[in-house]
Design a protein that fits this description.
Number of strands: 2
Structural class: mainly alpha
Distance between the termini: 90 Å
Strand content: under 5%
Shape: elongated
Strand order of the largest sheet: 1-2
Order of helices and strands: HHHEE
Radius of gyration: 36 Å
Largest sheet: 2 strands, antiparallel
Helix content: 40-55%
């Protein structure tokens, strides 16, 4: 396979293709890697080109694939990587199926992430409530035990708040 350096021998060709066969021909030439395409209509706006909708669809599918790859790598799931090998360009019929599959996977993954976040929040909230219940149970157990009355601390520490010669103590009412 040659490269597209200046020292390589090149030939400038103009190719006329039927609209129906253009996709298959260009994909085959692109997969060979021996062809460089030149834009013969540089003044035409990108949004006025014939295949702008297909390019947008491809960009959107690429974005979804990047999102899926980022999530897979974040979770540490091993992926099969084939260095230097690119898959063949899918046929237009297959593009529709791929687009639907990527959309479904992206939506499912977003839903899974939202559910995981909600579960984590619920877990933390329930853990906090469990600790609160344990602490209040210990408090009520200590208050119910009459032998621990001498261990009760006065309201303002050792000297206490004297009301009529008697220290005020904290307690609870049933």
């Amino acid at each position: 396979m040659g490269s597209l350096f200046r020292s390589e021998e090149m030939t400038l060709c103009q190719l006329f293709l039927q609209s129906e066969a253009a996709y298959a021909c260009v994909s085959e030439l692109g997969e060979l890697g021996l062809v460089q395409f030149r834009d013969l209509n540089p003044d035409v706006n990108a949004f006025q080109r014939k295949f702008v909708n297909e390019v947008r669809r491809c960009d959107e599918m690429e974005r979804k694939l990047r999102y899926l790859e980022k999530e897979i790598r974040r979770d540490g799931i091993p992926m099969l990587e084939i260095p230097g090998e690119c898959p063949e360009a899918p046929q237009p019929r297959e593009m529709i199926d791929l687009e639907a599959t990527f959309e479904k996977l992206e939506n499912e993954l977003r839903e899974v992430n939202q559910n995981a976040e909600a579960l984590k929040r619920n877990y933390l909230e329930l853990t906090e409530l469990k600790h609160i219940l344990r602490k209040t149970q210990v408090f009520f157990d200590e208050m119910a035990d009459p032998s621990r009355e001498e261990e009760q601390v006065t309201l303002l520490g050792e000297e206490g708040l004297m009301a009529g010669g008697q220290a005020l103590k904290l307690g609870y009412a049933d």
